[in-house]
Amino acid sequence: MSEINKKKSLSVGQIICIILAAFLMLVQMYSWGKTFGRMPLSTLMRFVPGMLDKATLVLVPMVFGAVYSKKKIRPTEAYRFWIIAVVTLVLLYLVNFFKRPGSFNMWKLWGVFFPVLTSTSVLLAGLIFSILAQPYLYELQHRITTKQNLLLLSALTLVGFATSAGTMYFNYSIYGAYLILYFAWGMFLANVKIPKKVFGWSIAAGVFSFFVMFIGVPGFNGVYWYQRLSGRSSVYSWTPEFLSNPASPFLFLMVLAAFLIFRKVIVSYSAKDMRFFIPVIIFMDAPIIGGFASSFRFTNSAGFNKFLMIVIMMIAALALNYLYNRFLFRIKPIKKTVEFFNNHDNLAEVLEYGWKNFPAWVVENRVRLLTWGWFYILSLVSFLIESDNLRIQITTATDINAVIFLLGTRFFAIILTAIFLDAMFAIFYFITTRYWTSTILVSVITIGWAIANKTKLNLRGEPIYPTELDEIVNWKTLLPMVGQQKVIMIAIALVIVIALTIFLEIKFPIKKKGSWKRRGIWALLSLLLFMTPARFNHDGGIIYHINRGFDNKQSFRNPERDIQINGPVLNFLNYFDLQIMNKPSNYSKATINHLNEKYGKIADEINKTRKNTLKDQTIVYNLSESFVDPYTFPTVKIDPKVPNPVRFIQSMKDRSTYGSMLSAGYGGGTANMEWETLTGFNMGMFKSTLTPYVQIVPKYDFYPTLGMDFNYKSAVHPFIGTYYSRVEDYKRFKFNKFVYLGSKYKIIDQKKLGKSSYNSDFTTYANCLKQINSMKGGQFINLIS
């Protein structure tokens, strides 16, 4: 498309006008209401910045309409606006990410590539809509007389205000369609002769309208709040700023006066000149711009900082405009798209072409589209498996439909899971070169993993952690927990899946497009993607912020809820990079030695008066999941007439040292509370929820516990001893003996309660007594029921 009003260079006057316009637009990056509120006539002045914002919405489309009024415009120009906006937004968000990485959010990034759909800028949307409507406006305005044009535009302006009652807020892109009216005004005014008398009256009307708004807006604001505070208005039925609304005739008359004053210089600009304002509009309207602009502090003066930032953004807009004109439209895909739009005269032709060719494009790319679609569905299903009957508890007292909650608030967490599934597919496809085999492998692993996590959730109230993968050696005891019926169903399902895979590979073989080199590159990138979880929890890192921008925010406080809102795949990956605790201030070897010396002296002083030593006594730590004093258990009430079932235990309070221990939970978390009792530390000291036995203790050759004060220490657990790495951890605790099922020490008096497969507490205490009687002198016994 040939350039409209093409010129070699701009005059000094034109340059000054462009700089002034850009400055006034970029001023709107900041909120100036409070600043103007501190000036003389503060009650009136604080509404001026808002009037400027709304005037911009009217004036800019009029200016563009005037410049693009000379001939019919093809849809190419609308595409140019869009691609300039997208590239500008990408660059702006990149700078913002490195400046303020914590502000990264995928919902915002979505708006970068779809600025119109996500209402990034109503003004940008209005300009794109106007350019697409320009050929039809051009035909209409040249078909009717000047008087008819004036009457039609005036009527539409008045009707728009009257039918909306001045309540349009112009905060969504759809309102950009209304700005086509002002674009049409600009087209009309650029080509009509205006007598001096009409010009004078227009200027006077504009000045009068300004004072009407300057006084009227604050006045109606007072009336509005009087009604609100006095209770006479119970609904937001009107806006006190209706006089300065972008649909207001008063605002239009004020803007019209400004337009007519600068009309001569406005019509002298070219389409190429107007593209400079697209980056300016983006800088003015981008959702992140307020926080971004305020994050730069060059001096101690807030006002001067704002001025400098506006100048910097003007320079950035000029530089981007130069680069776009020089390089952007030479990029091959963009150049081809421009050529495509150049071959169509209007939007209707583009839509007709799309209607005819879209089905063919879908058919050509059906494998890729269906694969991505399937992985998204697979990802969503894995989330739903972790829910409780398709309900997710969002607070302690409220739950919500899982499908609605996940699609509404966890959209990008599901997307991130799908990305990892696609990466897994790329690796499998590179290895097998079989589409169905790779797809079904990913599907089986994903669903199987989700079911395995749900099974553990039902049994233990927590998901599977990476450190527990070595528990597979206990498959003989794990399978009974899963249940015989489920095991049989899984086996049958696997047979069916294998048969289905063979059938699909033979009858419907699919070969994805691309060479082995391309597949290899994707496989390599996929392997790199699977390395990113190693940095998921490194607070402040780039991967950390990108991960959280996908809504993958692990709380580590409620494992069950975490897996429900993050899904089994992301939840598992989140535990690869556990940050154990925040480093205390002044932490060093010297500080620890000082503390050791300080409390060592205190201990020596206390021990001077002791009559016996701890190691000469026999101490048993009895951790029982099955016991709790019902009289202290919250929500449980015991009938006074019922015999006290724990009377003997309670009577021991009067015959021994007695106290209460704060437990992290009831009926679970044994390994964590066992760690607390042995070390004397609390789980709350950690940065996240973890299991010290499997995530901390294995990192050390020796791990100090209470047992180190005894010459002989042992542990008794009449169950599988390999859970939570107890066998290895007790070696690090320097325990002399660990009695468990399968150990070299025999478990005696094995008795069950009813049909339970577990040994009862009778067995636990029998083996404890055996250990007590087997040793003379003091010893320490860690007894776990």
Describe, in plain words, how this protein is organized in 3D.
Mean pLDDT is 87; it is low at 1-6. 58% of the residues lie in helices and 4% in strands. It has a four-stranded parallel beta sheet with strand order 3-6-4-5, with helices on both faces. It folds into three domains: 21-193 and 274-355, no CATH class; 369-577, no CATH class; 613-784, 3-Layer(aba) Sandwich (Alkaline Phosphatase, subunit A). The protein has helices spanning 12-26, 33-37, 42-45, 48-67, 76-99, 106-113, 122-143, 146-164, 180-190, 196-230, 249-261, 263-267, 271-274, 277-285, 289-294, 302-326, 332-342, 347-364, 366-385, 402-409, 411-432, 435-460, 475-482, 484-507, 516-529, 542-549, 559-574, 589-607, 647-651, 670-679, 692-695, 726-732, 761-773; strands at residues 391-393, 399-401, 618-623, 713-720, 737-741, 779-784. The protein starts with 11 loop residues before the first helix and ends with a strand. Helix 22 (435-460) runs antiparallel to helix 27. 31% of the residues are buried. It is built from 33 helices and six strands. Helix 32 links the parallel strand 4 (713-720) and strand 5. The chain is mainly alpha-helical and 785 residues long.
